[in-house]
Design a protein that fits this description.
- The chain is an alpha+beta fold.
- The protein folds into two domains: about 1-315, no CATH class; about 330-425.
- It contains 16 helices and 15 strands.
- The protein is globular, with a radius of gyration of 24 Å.
- The termini are far apart.
């Protein structure tokens, strides 16, 4: 079947270069590659109506996830309305469903995965992509278990970069997942298998902001949720922008794959060809209307998820926290030591961002730095948020710190006193 779909002299996959975790904002090591003569069965599509706009990942003729614009256009830095698609199982294209053995091979290396996934990657349009080995939260970006997505378009903060004030924007990275299968496909036994066998990877496609569509691995993601950890995943990231050379400014043309730039010298095709192919992703008006109206009622059923699965919602950071971790910058011991010696000037927001990063990354230096910020009046405007983080620790150091606060309380911060009192009453 695959030989018929991908003639050896037809579709080809060409590796361009490897990118390590420190060179990108992808969240893991990646490989940049070019698909020649892709089948375009799995692709991003865009459509516009007078009072609506749609971006969707389409498989064959089936929308898998729907991003609605707020009005007749898309603002790249605005929250999108996100809704479930029609479901992979509803497509008349059964190629992906026949790839289970390919998609469920144990992970060996990124390079081996790229080779193994050729039949899947060849379903995408001709163009430039990256395949990244990373970990994704089994939540949907709105603080909910990922498989609770339904047909009601809902604003999702993770659908775009986050604004931090003073011209600061976060970098949207693959971080959260959205389902492409309805919850009626859930099999508890399959999830339990992956809890005991974690050498596999889910397969996801990066859409926009921090959101990815889960092409394969719904049960792997549930297994991760049950264990309150991220799911290991291979994420496909398509090129998102391109620009031509500017002779006056003596700049070269190139493309960007979520922040990683390929100059025109590294490309295998002209920039004009890249741009031309993107234009084919525009939907006709009648197709836009059809995709907007297609609904799979299975997504609207009130599936009775076990409470232990839903508890996962509390174990993962929201998108603002993810942005704060990025804005914190480096949190090496060398930098933290400089801060403690007052050798680096920080804003109050810097103090909060560093505290958030240390807390959510479970750094052993969280308490030390949090205590420092909370004893320094320069950070008083963010004290309450840092105190809330500290209050999540249940040990003698935190108790002693809070007792010291009550002894020295200047009565000017009732919100902080309330946090301290609530903590000590629970002891």
């Amino acid at each position: 079947m695959f030989r018929n779909l991908f003639n050896r002299s037809d579709m080809d996959l060409i590796t361009i270069k490897s990118i390590n975790n420190y060179q990108s904002d992808w969240g893991g090591n990646g490989v940049v590659f070019y698909i020649k003569n892709g089948k375009a069965l799995l692709s991003n599509k865009y459509g516009y109506l007078e009072n609506d706009a749609l971006a969707t990942l389409v498989y064959g003729d089936t929308p898998l996830i729907k991003f609605h614009g707020d009005g007749p256009y898309f603002c790249p830095t605005c929250e999108k309305l996100v809704a479930a698609g029609y479901g992979l199982n509803m497509s008349d294209q059964q190629v992906i469903s026949q790839m289970r053995d390919i998609l469920n091979q144990k992970f060996i290396s990124l390079e081996q995965s790229l080779e193994n996934l050729k039949p899947l990657l060849g379903l995408m349009p001709t163009g430039y992509y990256a395949l990244v080995d990373t970990e994704l939260c089994p939540t949907n970006g709105n603080g909910e278990f990922f498989w609770k997505l339904n047909n009601i378009p809902t604003y999702n903060k993770a659908s775009c970069p986050i604004y931090g004030g003073d011209g600061l924007w976060s970098t949207g990275i693959p971080y959260y997942i959205l389902p492409t299968q309805p919850p009626s496909h859930y099999n508890p036994q399959q999830a339990e298998f992956y809890r005991k066998n974690d050498g596999y990877r889910a397969i996801a496609y990066h859409l926009d902001g921090y959101l990815c569509a889960l092409l394969d691995g719904h049960h792997k993601a549930v297994a991760a949720a049950l264990d309150k950890k991220k799911v290991k995943a291979l994420v496909i990231i398509p090129a998102g922008s391109a620009w031509e050379a500017n002779k006056k400014q003596k700049t070269k043309g190139g493309i960007s794959i979520n922040g990683i730039t390929l100059s025109e010298d590294e490309l295998l095709t002209p920039i004009t060809e890249v741009m031309r192919l993107w234009k084919t992703n525009r939907l006709k008006k009648e197709d836009t209307i059809k995709y907007l109206t297609l609904k799979n009622n299975d997504f609207d059923e009130n599936y009775n998820w076990p409470q232990e699965i839903l508890e996962a919602e509390k174990s993962f950071p929201d998108v603002l926290t993810v942005a704060r971790i990025e804005w914190a910058g480096g949190i090496s011991d060398e930098r933290l030591n400089r801060i403690l010696k007052n050798e680096e000037t920080l804003s109050d927001k810097d103090g909060l961002n560093i505290s958030m990063a240390l807390y959510h990354l479970r750094s052993p230096r969280f308490k030390e730095m949090a205590f420092y910020f909370c004893r320094n009046y320069f950070f008083v405007t963010v004290w309450n948020k840092i105190y809330e983080l500290v209050a999540n620790g249940k040990d003698e150091d935190v108790e002693n710190f809070f007792v010291d606060y009550l002894i020295q309380d200047d009565k000017d911060h009732p919100d902080i006193k309330r946090i301290v009192d609530n903590y000590l009453m629970q002891k």
